[in-house]
Design brief:
Two copies of one chain form a homodimer. Chain A has about 350 residues and is of the alpha/beta class. The first copy, chain A, has two domains: about 160 residues, ornithine cyclodeaminase, domain 1, CATH 3.30.1780; about 170 residues, Rossmann fold (3-Layer(aba) Sandwich). In chain A, about 35% of the residues lie in helices and about 25% in strands. In chain A, the strands form three sheets. Chain A has an eight-stranded parallel β-sheet. In chain A, strands 2-3-4-5-6-1-17 form a seven-stranded mixed β-sheet. In chain A, helix 2 packs across helix 4, helix 3 crosses helix 4 and helix 3 packs across helix 10. The model of chain A has no long low-confidence stretch (mean pLDDT about 95).
Chain lengths: ~350, ~350
């Protein structure tokens, strides 16, 4: 049939093209650039249209839509969370996302976001640590060595100057996989046999486990003063990783309180427990870490603005990289009122 | 690179393939089948996960996400509404949607929905009229002859037995376009010069105009007893088509009250004004039209379950029709925990 009009075509970034883009830019450079993009958007936080994600829960998982807009560009992400998927050989978290033009409502780009979410989550974690971790932090414990682990390690290396990561997972095969993937990348990688061993000498502790349960990956006596905790895995109702007593000793920083109070570690606390919004630390509206001895906690659940920043980053690299394909996704007849006539013309062309 | 795994691929129905599917099945048969699918889902209404659509408003339009789930399948639609788009040569409403498997969160199908929305809106309108219009209704007035008009006309012919449509639009070119497209399809088509002329002898009145304003397409004295009004165009805050007095004389039927009270004609009424949910008429839980002389009003705004039904209908025809392409949309490494390793293997293949 007649080729679709330019307005009908939406650039699509496939998984294959996202991998090529990451390799083209380089993982660490991409982490630094993503963190800069996210920080720039966090600094103009009040300008965004914000809403807690729209979740559809079932017994074994959740499907969520995460929309936001800065008034010029609209973005949303579709993302699922199914901890039992791993046993079926499937990803626990898969995602895709879309950018659209607020002025017309027309889509600007569709993109895979399973890989991009891992990148933006790691970039956000490292960005938070850049603002909150104790000065001179170079060693990070990583508890949970699954799909997110290598991204976290490389983001902390690139953005925060971490030089040593100490790995622990209840499944030694996950630790071995992570250590193998990180080999030769300029990090000292230490595989540990317990969470206690992993946190030895660490100024930063990242928890990133996937089980949906009220877990206690870290108990109170494991966490000494002057550390920064990057709690990534506790991100939906009923899924936490830290003992409540750690939270009570910590200075807590979050993305968007209405969402984090439902989904984050702080679901264990009262609804009025004081927390600081990370964007306010960046703009100077709120203090960050109070003293070198404080425990800072970034209670990360992932917010729509981070996906928006990541999608905009990818979109800005599209034309130069050429790493996309056009999808015939929008019906766009010459006369916008003649949608039906478009079908009739297609019929005539098929018959010809 | 190595071909993506089967789990990575999501069938995508482009605009071109949607047009081919419509032509393959036939517009009228598709309307009848869509109406049946929608009725079947309305009859199991309480089972669905329901939420008002998630809207992001700007000065000149709105972008919405409309999710729902029946516990086995999840669906959502992205749809915009930008009345000023037409002047730019763009569609007022464009849409796409997705089905996913609730058990895994993995997408099952991505589809264009600009055309599909026009089809499902018309099928829903005709379905409502099948239950609510006076017996033996054969003539329909159509006020507003834009992108939705031909779909509405053919749905009412196929589902309700309408034999004559009387067209009126403030722009005669829209009426001419509609009359031209409907020629030779077994309908008597009468082009009229006023709304008053269009409603002469009509037992059904469809209003489907696009201006975002508190319009009065129908005034009170235009509407006599014993008619059914299918009000399609009033579908967002500040956008209505009927004079309030008509509403006060009508038996009002809606899709999902929490959404219709915000978006429909009934935004002009108090929040406790009695309305009947259409699904309850179908199951017998609530009465439909009370007498032959009553005015029935279907205050249509479009609900997520109709999109769900339409997407499931298209999905059920995919394999037989072959009218789709596979998108490499889900990162699906052999070891689900080895997302990073997938990138490393891609690098090795690119270097080879």
């Amino acid at each position: 049939m007649t080729a679709p009009s330019r307005n009908a075509l939406v650039p699509f970034v496939s998984v294959d093209n996202m991998m090529r883009l990451v390799l083209h830019i380089g993982v660490e450079r991409m982490m630094v650039e993503l963190a800069a993009e996210i920080e720039a958007d966090f600094r103009r936080w009040p300008l965004f249209d914000k809403t807690p994600r729209v979740a559809s829960h079932s017994d074994i998982g959740v499907i969520e839509l995460m929309p936001t807009s800065d008034g010029e560009t609209y973005g949303f992400k579709y993302v699922n969370g199914h901890p039992s998927n791993m046993k079926k050989g499937l990803q626990t978290v898969t995602a895709f996302g879309l950018l659209a033009d607020v002025a017309t409502g027309y889509p600007l780009m569709l993109s895979e976001m399973t890989i991009l979410t891992a990148l933006r989550t790691a970039a956000t974690s490292a960005l938070a640590a850049k603002w909150l971790a104790p000065k001179g932090a170079t060693t990070m414990a990583m508890i949970g060595n699954g799909a997110q682990a290598e991204f976290q390690a490389l983001a902390f290396k690139a953005v925060c100057g971490v030089t040593e990561v100490r790995l622990y997972d209840i499944d030694p095969a996950a630790t071995a996989k992570c250590a193998r993937n990180l080999a030769g990348r300029g990090l000292t990688v230490v595989s540990c046999r317990s969470a206690e061993e992993a946190i030895l000498g660490a100024q930063i502790i990242t928890t990133c486990t996937a089980d949906k349960q009220l877990a206690t990956i870290l108990t109170d006596n494991m966490v000494g003063s002057g550390v920064h905790i990057n709690a990534v895995g506790g991100d939906c109702p009923g899924k936490t990783e830290l003992h409540r007593d750690i939270l009570l000793r910590s200075e807590i920083f979050v993305e968007y309180p209405p969402q984090t109070r439902i989904e984050g570690e702080i679901q264990q606390l009262t609804a009025d427990h004081p927390v600081t919004e990370l964007w306010q630390v960046m703009t100077g509206a709120a203090p960050g870490r109070s003293t070198a001895k404080a425990i800072t906690l970034f209670d990360s659940v992932g917010f729509a603005i981070e996906d928006f920043s990541a999608l905009r980053y990818v979109h800005s690299r599209l034309r130069a990289s050429g790493l996309f394909q056009d999808l015939d996704m929008i019906a766009d007849p010459d006369d916008p009122r003649d949608l039906f006539g478009m079908i009739l013309r297609a019929q005539a062309e098929l018959a010809a």
